Amino acid sequence: MSLGLYAALAWLYRRKKFDGQVFALYLVCYAFTRSFVEVFRGDYPERYLGGIATPAHLVSAAILAVGLVLYWKLSRRKPSHSG
Asked: Which pTM was predicted?
């Protein structure tokens, strides 16, 4: 799964529209893939939110939020032209 994510981000890197786009998308994609993998793990004795979320799900939700906000903020920023 991580190799596929790397390949997609490497492909996107050559087509990025603004600085930070690839990193922000990495955060978003990592949060989704990590949450997906967590569904299949059975070694967490403690669950939250009524038994549906592990601690890693909660961290993934925070990473997802940071990635989305970062993408939104960076995409709206005007490019700086130095030189």
From this structure: 0.80
